[in-house]
Design a protein that fits this description.
The protein is built from 15 helices and seven strands. By secondary structure, the protein is of the alpha/beta class. The longest helix has 27 residues. It is globular, with a radius of gyration of 21 Å.
């Protein structure tokens, strides 16, 4: 088995990846005329003092090492010249079996980045690695090598390749800070690349959505708030990714008429509830995805897709799931899960709910 590790430039040798956000913030604050101390990725009082002197951070999460990338991202958005310090500006790491698979992954990743920037209005400061193969045995050694390059801890458990691949045209999974993609086989043939590309981009739009969620919620590594995992509820996490996937494929930002009816039908036929999906702790099969998808679509219809991402930003500012949901959508998660039972069965009610207030 041949491992091709492709980098757009030479591997960047800098501070630990967990401290990339701190180094970015230090560089940005220095460029803005403040003195955070040496650019070494170490969170110290001088960094906080420089950030306070800069100001403008009232809407940001409290500054600590785990939220430094959020500050780095927002400062870069306020001054595009400072985006050059983003960890995502460093070389893209791709692990693939062959050069043609490497090219496919790179082209797909760039297309998804462009889509999020131009259509969703979102850019990530996080450096995300991409791994893809047609053979299950490729993933564990490839991921170990990628994590070593990113100077991240090794994965404790092997990848569940049976679940990842599962005979699908393209299977996908996301974690912090990488995405995995599996296809039936890799062929060194441009025709193979053309056949697989549309499906890979569809799946990558979904998995990249999770990277957006991690970043906006400042959830790398995964955090708990009052004993509850920050990133949730589970139906919301997967439902938003399903929404983005649907928008990417369809080229639409909203649903109406037949689209809304079809989406509602998939949710209406299921006995699964939003509370039940959250209690399971996962959303994995097509039936569960159909329920989560429609729940997210309704919120997007009423409040706009941008509000779904605002929810994750609220989590990143330290709000609980209940408070973030209420602040963003005007009702508690429990109230929405109860209302959803009516909305997924009554087409008229679903249409009325989806109409934005004037």
């Amino acid at each position: 088995m041949r491992l091709v590790l492709a980098l757009t430039l030479a591997v960047w040798a800098g501070p630990l990846a967990a401290q990339d956000g701190v180094a970015c913030l230090q560089s940005q604050l220095s460029a803005l005329g403040h003195d955070p101390g040496p650019v070494d990725g170490t969170m110290r009082p001088s960094v906080r003092d420089a950030a306070a002197a800069w100001g403008g951070g009232d809407a940001f999460p409290g500054l600590r090492r785990g939220t430094a990338t959020s500050w780095c991202r927002e400062i870069g958005l306020s001054d595009p010249a400072l985006k050059s310090h983003w960890p995502s500006a460093k070389p893209l790491i791709i692990a693939a079996e062959t050069p043609i698979a490497t090219a496919l992954l790179r082209q797909s990743f760039e297309a998804i980045q462009t889509y999020f920037r131009d259509i969703q209005g979102i850019e990530l400061a996080t450096r995300v690695a991409v791994i893809g193969a047609g053979e299950g045995g490729f993933f564990d050694p490839a991921l170990a090598d990628v994590l070593m390059q990113l100077e991240r801890p090794a994965r404790a458990r092997p990848i569940d390749t049976a679940r990842l691949c599962n005979g699908r045209t393209v299977g996908g999974a996301a974690n912090r800070p990488y995405m995995l993609f599996c296809w039936p086989q890799t062929v060194e043939d441009p025709a193979w690349q053309a056949r697989i590309a549309p499906e890979l981009r569809r799946v990558m739009a979904h998995e990249y959505s999770h990277q957006v969620q991690y970043a906006l919620a400042a959830d790398d590594p995964a955090q708990r708030v009052d004993g509850v995992w920050r990133l949730g509820p589970h139906w919301m996490v997967e439902g938003v990714a399903e929404l983005v996937e649907w928008q990417f494929v369809s080229g639409q930002q909203t649903t109406d008429g037949a689209d809304l009816f079809d989406l509602q039908t998939a949710a209406r036929r299921s006995r699964l509830t939003l509370d039940g999906l959250d209690a399971q702790g996962t959303v994995t099969d097509s039936e569960a995805y159909g329920v989560a998808r429609f729940a997210a679509y309704l919120l997007a219809q009423r409040h706009g897709t941008e509000a779904l991402f605002d929810y994750f930003r609220a989590l990143g500012r330290g709000l609980s799931q209940d408070d973030a949901f209420a602040q963003t959508f005007g009702l508690t998660p429990s109230a929405y899960t109860a209302l959803f039972e009516e909305l997924r069965r009554d087409y008229g009610a679903a249409r009325r709910f989806g109409r934005r207030d004037p």
